[in-house]
Amino acid sequence: MARWGWDNNIFCLQLWNELNLFPDWPSIAPQIGEWHNRMALYLREIDPNRHLVSTSFYNIDGIPEVWQAREMDFVEPHVYGVVDMAHTLPEATQFVKEKYGWPVLIDEFGPPLVSEMLNLTAIDPTESTYTMPSGPPRLPEGLAPLSPGGGIRTSIPGLYSVFTRW
């Protein structure tokens, strides 16, 4: 709140991003749900602009103890690994809305990122746009950046088919 609470143009306050990637979260789901309620209540006490409050999960399952928490304003699933976004996103939205009874915002989504599926070896790197990190790439062990030199490929020609049926 001290840094951004004054700004009424901020859409919401997200307490956690992709919470279900936290190790051993199922064993402490009730405590996580209670923490979310306490943090949301506290933010409501000190937030002069009454921002919405939520938290996100890397899939549409979520954690009932959190997404059904009385202080959450909406649910934020992420949908990755899907080829047909035009059909999947509305279905995912309906599923989550029916399951949790809250408004739904799918705030992250994307295609499967399997190099064989995307045929990245056939992409001409001179026709792509890169965002270069300020230092060496920090990726999980076993993963490699999509571009030489550690940059992240942000615009790859020919990926339209990833977002449509093939």
Structure description:
- The structure is a single chain.
- With 166 residues, this protein is an alpha/beta fold.
- It has 2 domains: 99 residues, no CATH class; 49 residues, no CATH class.
- Helix content is 25%, strand content 14%.
- The strands form 3 sheets. It has a 3-stranded parallel β-sheet, covered by helices on one side. Strands 1-2 form a two-stranded parallel ribbon.
- It is globular and about 40 Å long.
- 15% of the residues are buried.
Largest sheet: 3 strands, parallel
**Overall geometry:** globular
The whole-number mean of residue pLDDT values reads: 74
Give me the Rg, rounded: 19 Å
Task: Give a brief description.
With 166 residues, the chain is an alpha/beta fold. The chain is built from 4 helices and 7 strands.
Label this structure with key terms:
alpha/beta, two-stranded parallel ribbon, 166 residues
Element layout with pairings:
Blueprint: E1 12-14, H1 29-46, E2 52-54, E3 56-57, H2 64-67, E4 76-80, H3 85-100, E5 108-110, H4 115-118, E6 129-131, E7 152-155
Parallel strand pairs: 1-2, 3-4, 4-5
Antiparallel strand pairs: 6-7
